[in-house]
Amino acid sequence: MSVIILTKTLNVWYGQFLAVKSASVEISERSITALIGASGSGKSSFLRCLNRMIDVIPKAHTDGQVLYRGNNILDAATDVIALRRSIGMVFQNPTPFPKSIYDNIAYGLEIQGLKKRRTRSMRLFRSSAIDPNMLEASLDPIDRRVVQSLKEAALWDEVKDRLHQSAFGLSGGQQQRLCIARSIAVRPDVLLLDEPCSELDPISTRKIEDLLLDLKKRYTIVIVTHNMHQARRVSDAVGFFHLGELVEFGPVSQIFVEPQQQLTRDYVAGAFG
Amino acid sequence: MVHASRREYIPFIIFQAATIAGVAILFMTLMLLWREGHAVLSWDFVMRPWSHRDITSGGIAQAIIGSLFVGMGVTLFSFPVGVATAVYLTEYSRETLWKRVIQLAIQNLAGVPSVVYGLFGLVVFVNTLKFGTTLIAAILTLSVMTLPWVITASVEALTAVPPRFRHSSLALGATRWQTVWRVVLPSAFPGCITGGIVGIARALGETAPIIIVGATFYLSGFPTSPFQKFMALPYHVFILATQHSNSSAQSYAAATALVLILMTFCLTLGAIIVRYRLRLKKDW
């Protein structure tokens, strides 16, 4: 498998505080890479560097290199907008927009300039119901992508009869799968997930894990997780962070079966964290 | 009645009394105006032009039109400028001392007496920009006066939008402007409208500044351009109540005040309906 993202001595500071210390990682294409570690270990900060979402945190700055397909994305000249269209992100809390289910997915496509045919003439009033069969048969590019993304996110059957309703009516697990559908609707190359299941029940978590294993065929996935069992179940490679340091990075079998570092051994054995 | 234990009885009574007093004062004001003015109220009173020599033969049409223009003009000017300022302050400017100074200044401007704005308008719009004492000078003066309300309410509405919406939008590859226009503003708009409503209501009721910058107590026709003088309801009430010798002037003043209240209510009602519909869609 070819390497898609390569970080070299990546440092992240919040003011004077060094949150990620010289992390060097190789992420392979079409695989799931899990980042594990205790709270405050720097794994989320590391993840946010991969699509420059670190930029939105005040006082954060970085140095080192993050090479995405050979280009250093930490470079000031990087087109951040284009980068984030290639490297999508799903957050810890489900974050649907206060829009309908359909519009939540269509949003990412509309901002890229796809024209919406399904205009709501009376925006102030609740938009009318969308017929799922008509939508499935529609040739409109946005309609097609919405249907496709919801199916890929294994959400279509659950929401097809209420596409025009607010996304806030969905359960937490459904909302998180909607966020995944929203991210993959723009056809990214890489999908970053920041503890996507930490607020979900075991059944919803299971659905998301199954979904990730399926999405791996088409996307490169990097997931930050608190849950070691989850990392073990879904990932191909694992990075273990501790107090800002990348202690160990390797195939899932190495980290969980024969870790090279004492710290890793203690952590995966549940001795701390 | 709310079930209140003995210990809670006294605070409960105090709160209830305060509520009743507030509502009662409002109700009594309306009752007094109605008692004084209802005999004069008629379709003719609202539709016919003002007759200065014999007030019983005329109405208050010019004052209504004048106030209507003022209300619409202030809305058209101060609402977009106020919301744009709030967007700049919350979405674009960095957390600097400068930004805090600006916000503090805006909040303090909301407490400046309206007559001071009148003098400001006289210097800036009437004399410096040479608009003269006209409708446009009054609209701009009242807009400047209402801006702090619109800005403060809008800033609060914008900061109440959870940051996670912005982050999600940016993570999808949206530009900052797309995020503001398509995600943040729709969520914050009801709160911005509240600021606008308070602004219009204040502007419509204001007397002192418009006397300084362009309202007049008598006009033979309607203003046909923003560069003419105008009549306005609050000033008309003042003239009738204090300057007119006719014995029925008090009744006419009360009736005019009722029309002013009704007009303010109608102008804000539209905004309230829009806000209500928007709030139906917003449920996080």
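qc> Confidence is low (pLDDT under 50) at residues 121-126 of chain A.
qc> done
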